[in-house]
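Sorry to interrupt, but I need a hand with the structure work. Can you supply me with one protein entry, sequence and fold together? No commentary is needed, just the two lines. Leave the record below and I will have a look.
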Amino acid sequence: MAEPRRVLILGGTAEARDLARRLAAAPELEVVTSLAGVTRNPERPPGRLRRGGFGGAAGLEAYLRDQAVACLIDATHPYAERISGNAAAAAAAAGVPRLQLLRPPWQAEPEDRWVRVRDTEAAALRLPALGRRVFISSGRQGIGAFRELSGHWFLIRLIDPPESPLPLPHYEVTPGRAPFTVEEEAELLRRQRIEVLVSKNSGGSMTYAKIAAARRLGLPVVMLDRPAPPAGPTVTEPAAAADWLRRQLQAAPD
C-alpha cells in the first residue's frame, strides 16, 4: 500500500477546519494543519496539528521539502498578508502546488453606513467625525493607530485577554469568540452606547452578526480594506479546495 500523501493546511479559520474534516477521513492522505499560535486555545481541527511559525518563507520552504509535502493549501484569515505571501514564495521555490482558500468579502447593503479605509491609520483619522464611543472588532493588530484619540473610548473584543495593557487612553476589553447572534451584538452595542464600529471585511458568517446589528441600529461601520492576495489559484469554498486537491494528486506521480 502506498504511503499517504502529506497535505499542509495553513489554518486558523472555520474554512480550514471544514477542509480538514473533509480530508481527514481519506486513508490516502495525511492532513497537517498549521496554526500560527496567536490564539491560546484554538479549536482543534481533525488530523495532525502543528503550532508556531516556520521562520519566514525560507523556513516554510525547508519544511515543505523536509516533510515531502505534496500540496499546500493556504486557508488563513483574509488579512494574514505576511503568511500568505510567505506561502506563495515558499511553495514556488519548493515546487509544491499551492491553493488559496479565501472566503469572499461581505458586500454592503443599501441600509449599511460603511466608511471604507485602507488601514487602521486611515480609520483613526475618520473616527472623530463619526463618534466617540468606538467598538473595535478587528483584533489587536494595528490598535496602536488609535493611541492619540484621547477623547475617545474604545470597546475591544479579543478572544484571549491581553497579557499587558493596550496602547489606548480609555478602553475596556470584552472577551468573546464568534459566532454571536444579531440580537447579542445589538444588545452589546446598545448597552455600551457604541456610536461607531471598526471592522475588517472578514467575510463569512461567523462574525457577520455585528455588521447586521450595526445596520439595524443605524451605526456607521469603518471597514478596513482587505490586502491583495498573492497571485495564484484561489477558491472560496472548502468543497472546491478538496476537489482541487484531488485533481492535483491524481495528476502527480506517487
The radius of gyration is 20 Å.
